[in-house]
Amino acid sequence: MSLDKKKNQKSKLHSRNRNRERYDLKVLTSIETELKNYIRPNKHGDDSIDFSKPLAVKLLNKAILNHYYGIKYWEFPDENLCPPIPGRADYIHHMADLLCENNFGTIPTGDKITCLDIGIGANCIYPIIGVTEYQWKFIGSDINPKSIESAQKIISSNPSLIKRVECRLQNTPKAIFNSIIDKEEKVDITLCNPPFHSSIEDAQKVTQRKIKNLSGGEVNSTKLNLAGVNKELLFEGGEIKFIQNIIRESKANSKNCFWFSTLVSKQSNLKGIYQTLEKINPYQIKTIPMGTSNKSSRIVAWTFLSREEQKKWKKIRWKEHI
To answer: What ranges do the domains of the chain cover?
Structure first.
């Protein structure tokens, strides 16, 4: 590999991430021509996107999904969360690696693998990436009917997603798996990007700091640069409480799922998460570090299945990969 290519790579991203190298702005702006209005020099003098502008992020994502993932329709209300694609893709790739470890070094692909996306949101991003990269099937749950409606429109408008992604409305706001997973249903992976703010004041402070860093100047607006309605970003008790709810409820579904997982944005929350996991006594816990050039996070995953139960699971569900 040349030195120039190494310089252009985002070294913290997963090796299979399609956006590991710098964005090809010439190609992306040819797909979304309006994106040209949001290009400006970064601190190194190179052309870059003005990430402090929500519309710029959305246009960039639309171009990325079109060019790299074949998604021609990706529309949702502006008040909904618009996620950064590379970080979301890394989560999927790391979970594929986790399955690979349990499958003799081969990533199980195809519709024999079912993933549950807790909080699919209006943008349907995890199913898009998981279906495109590994041909997995997805169940997407959400408490917001409008988000389910938006995600379903994205699914029905892109042939690659049809019959591979099923949306399910969670009618009990504080429930995670109850009424979403049937007693006899099996899920190989659960994913979640939990709400990480405990209050609107907390969200505004974080956003002001983020926009200031991105724009390099003073901030007069508290508008979220990644947008996001309250239910997507806010939860009473914040990230830690939401994840603890997932952990506690996972115990009752211990034989329905191979790997439970969640993103953990704040490292300071890990101690409380581990303490809650110890109380439910899973068979195995894994912490997987991940991050982009300017942000570090991690995945916490756990399974209740013993070695013998894992072998039986693989023989029944992944037998073509054994």
So the answer is: 77-321
CA 222 vs. chain centroid, Å, equals 24
DSSP sequence for 188-216: EEEEE----BSSHHHHHHHHHHHHHHHHS
Are the CB atoms for 80 and 93 separated by under 8 Å?
A: no
205-to-141, 199, 219, 320 alpha-carbon distances in Å: 29, 10, 11, 50
Amino acid letter, residue 194: P
Q: DSSP letters of 274-317?
A: HHHHHHH--SEEEEEEEE-SS-EEEEEEEE---HHHHHHHHHHH
DSSP secondary structure letter of residue 169: E
- Has residue 209 got a pLDDT over 80? no
pLDDT tens-digit series, residues 168-200: 999 998 899 999 999 999 999 999 999 854 545
How is domain 77-321 classified at the architecture level of CATH? 3-Layer(aba) Sandwich (3.40)
Q: Count CA within 13 A, CB hemisphere, residue 35.
A: 23
